[in-house]
Amino acid sequence: MPRRTDIEKILIIGAGPIVIGQACEFDYSGSQACKALKEDGFKVILLNSNPATIMTDPTMADRTYVEPVTVDILEKIIEAERPDAILPTLGGQTALNTALEAAKMGILDKYGVELIGAKEHAIQKAEDREEFKEAMERIGIDLPRSGYAHSLAEAQHIIESIGFPAILRPSFTLGGMGGNIAYNRQEFDKYVEWGIEQSPVNEILIEESIIGWKEYELEVMRDTADNVVIICSIENFDAMGVHTGDSITVAPAQTLTDKEYQLMRDASLAIIREIGVDTGGSNIQFGVNPDDGRLVVIEMNPRVSRSSALASKATGFPIAKIAAKLAVGYTLDEITNDITGETPASFEPTIDYVVTKIPRFDFEKFAGANATLTTQMKSVGEVMGIGRTFKESLQKAISSMEKGYPGLISMVTRDGLTENKLDFIKEKMVVPNCERLYYIADALREGFTTADIYSLTGIDPWFLDNIKQLVDFEVEITGYRLKDEELPTELLRKAKEWGFSDIRIAQLLGVSEAKVAKRRREEGVVPVFKLVDTCGAEFEAKTPYLYSTYESECEAAPTDKKKVIILGGGPNRIGQGIEFDYCCVHGVQALSEDGFETIMVNCNPETVSTDYDTSDRLYFEPLTFEHVMNIVEKEKPWGVIVQFGGQTPLKLTTALEAAGVPIIGTSPDAIDLAEDRERFQQLLHKLKLLQPENALARSVEEAVAAAIKIGYPLVVRPSYVLGGRAMEIVYDEKSLRSYMANAVQVSPEHPVLLDRFLNDAIEVDVDAICDGKEVVIGGIMEHIEEAGVHSGDSACSLPPYSLTEEISDEIRRQTVALAHGIGVKGLMNIQFAVQGETIYVLEVNPRASRTVPFVSKATGVPLAKMAARVMAGKTLQELGFTKEIVPPYVSVKEAVFPFIKFPGVDTILSPEMRSTGEVMGIDNDFGIAFLKSQIAAGNILPTNGTVFISVKDEDKEAAVLLAKRLDEVGMKLMATHGTAKRLRVAGLEVKEVKKIKDGRPHVVDAIVNGEADLLFNTILGTKAQDDSYHIRRAALEYQVPYFTTIAGAKAAVSAIRSARKSTITVTPLQEYYD
Fold it and tell me: Within the chain, what is the greatest distance between any pair of CA atoms?
């Protein structure tokens, strides 16, 4: 069936901010869909609140609305644009839930808009667990025994027949949000109440436990002619009980017999037909009982999912692009597979290699978080390794993780464990955690059998046998070190075929990485590169998508064109996320347009940068010195860009330069000048610029002595850090000593930095480009939270909303001086603090920063594209970018946090970055722009009701002014004793409520009872933080918007007053730029 001609305008709903459970895979899928539909002549309208995405670039859609993804906003856009259809299946659970709610409210019928990709009844049937269960029973597909509850009483009745342990799954949530495993009644009652709250429809599924069963996923596509293809089978390394997003997964499935696979395949076809997904991709999860082979279906996502991105990158099959084309009427046999150029999309992918995905966790960012892996997703990113065997792909994935583990290192040795060693290892295997893989290797070293480990973990013996072979081979390699003999060439080759990195081999032999690499090359043990071709080498691949392995035939066929390699950012993590991938993609686009052959190197399957058609050539490889050098030696590039991928490629700069790699842009020496504390200080003295008083400490006593000299409070952190890792404010010697003992390992090689903390200072971020001669400011952003909150966690406004023109001009002058002083060529980011009339330089990053996408969206200037061209030799004059653009409208960036995923974690903002993503509000009025940013971040501000205020003494004056402004618009006031007293003196009527320590009913009771609609809570010092923790946690769990800084509270009051005066309107970016 050819393309539909009865629709012209299609509205795509994006996924909104990056959160745990819904990451940048939806930028990849949305971008593919926008491109595919525009190529086909459709007019594309896009709604997405996330400025850090490629899909919200103004060139991707015809009309780009960077607005909150809510039903109200969706209706305003439908009213303005009158689309013929909405495609809701490419924006994760957010898009699906928003579209479904709009359909249920009659909005789609009112404007005559059709849902394409998945119809309302199909979404409802797959997502509503009761309907899904009935559908499966109709077609004879087995499910775990279960029941649905909408209250605790109903749940307690259901558990009688199901028994413990029980799995709890809320309906219509993402990333298993609110999901849990209950082993007893006490846990059950607590988890049920939590799960019902998390479900937007207040419904929870209580399911028989199939913990310990094997888990599989099939990625399935169907068209209107009822053609169905299986794109990929994925097997979970971890047994059931760990969310699939948190499990190591392997494609294709390794341990299914052909008969088992065919049964699963048949079940998938029956399910997708019964649910009625008539166009597009679906992900279906199965459980298999290893004892008797019983097959049950766990759930189905009637949309492109996280696993779809993995399946796409694993096979080369562009699932999101094909899904978009199927949604507009094409059938699978009418769409050509881009990779082969001759097979149709109805030709099922076949792969002749193995792919392993390992999730990335950042539990260290969340003190008090439970690091046990359960049915609720907790990982913040992932990597993928491609190899000819499971062993090779697993070890390449480990090398990609950037956790400092070059292989299956020993956790026992790392932590110096001697007492109760076996019990500890056993516990680490029984309780799923993010380091379990390494403890399994330790268990094998300590004499556990694979049968022992299988009974403790439920991990299939086939996987355990492979790990045992790797551990045994490590012993064999170490034997040559003990004998003081050289490793034979055939064993060196075998080690490389099995995925051992040069660093790991060097560790085992007790020599340097350079020595192993040199020997390897001398013996001719060098990698070849193979193509990802979707067809097991049956047809020639037209798109160079490559991975390394150790065989004889190389398929790389490098060209002799002038080429640039861009090194990507590796796995998403807190502090280094999608913003850096955005910069990499822009760099590729700009240099391709300028005639360079572009080569992307990255290992993150979620991203746009690892899409087969983003760059001219894609190497899906770990971002280590060894793997990058292999590619450089094969491709012989004219230049390599390390500025765009965050800290990941920057860490390789010195070694790459020493190896003669042509790094373009800011020189490695200039990067070091900005990052080396002592060199940077000398530059500031020379330029007569100020920085907060500071010191470097190489021991605990040095730190204590420096603190006495500088004075408390202090900001302390390790040197060379991204995302404010282990950064804290300390208020006294006791907390400084505690920090030095627990947070960092201080040494002469790894000093700790101490800076005077600037009270009541405004932090300012500046992005700029320098071509070696001219400096142009990209944007000046004023932080809404005061200095002391990590820049990645603070809301910010562009242009500044309170800085004077004189201060802004002086910031501009200092930016130019620093760019020239450091010798920047390309992008730079500077963080300033303004205290009164004094400007301090906090830090300079001579690279792309996480604010680049936001500034680019706010001003309409693609900064990363400009910077790439500058690095490749163009001047800003040639590019026509010679003057800063100060928009006449206001853009506000707000951070989005995962606190709700981590019970027990405090939500107070600090110098340690903890946000996973960001949203943007844009309007002609600051108050409305801030309001939009809060709605988009899920912090919905009330326009009436009661505000609870409890602030530290130095904020009481400001709190009075805020309370007056809220009182003027009819909001009621509630406060604890000290604040209430101060408000009454100012003539305000206020309801007093007890602090927690003063007895009940107290402030938390008021929040739980729905008596507070908004919360302002500021504190000083660690004791006050502990005392007020329960207030902030209750506000989070009961969805009361809260602000923990007085500056944030001020912005909230402006937003509330603006909202009462005017209604929210929507405008596409393209109109702002006109």
Answer: 86
Q: Is the pLDDT of residue 202 over 70?
A: yes
Torsion of CA 250, 256, 258, 261, to 10 degrees: -80
Beta bridge partners of 840: 690, 833
Those residues whose C-beta lies under 8 Å from the C-beta of residue 273, and which sit 6 or more positions away, are 222, 226, 228
pLDDT tens profile 340-356? 778 888 888 889 999 99
Token pair belonging to 944: 């009436």
Cβ-defined contacts of 980-985 (< 8 Å, 24+) = 982/956, 983/949, 983/959
pLDDT of residue 673: 93
Alpha helices in 199-318 (DSSP H): 258-275, 306-315
Exposed (0-12), middle (13-18) or buried (19+): which is 658, by Cβ within 10 Å? exposed
For 325-340, give one letter per residue: b (16+ CB within 10 A) or e: bbbbbbbbebbebbbb
**Torsion sign over Cα 296, 300, 305, 309:** positive
Residue 895 pairs with which residues in a beta bridge? 918
Its pTM surpasses 0.90: yes
**Which pair of structure tokens corresponds to residue 406?**
């070059």
Residue type, 273: R
What is the per-residue pLDDT across 554-579, written as a single tens digit (0 to 9) for each? 999 999 999 999 999 999 999 899 99
Strand, helix or coil for residue 1015: strand
CB 29 within 8 A of CB 1040: no
Beta strand pairing status for 545-549 and 617-620? Answer: parallel
CA gap 632, 567 in Å, rounded: 11
Inter-residue contact 762 to 773 (CB < 8 Å):
no
Rounded CA separation 709/465 (Å): 58
Residue showing tokens 């997964």 = 249
**Residue 390: both structure tokens together:** 């499971």
Alpha-carbon separation of residue 31 from 12, 54, 318, 759 (angstroms): 10, 7, 12, 43
Length of the chain: 1074
Q: Residue 146's beta-bridge partner residues?
A: 207
Tokens 């055939």 appear where?
490
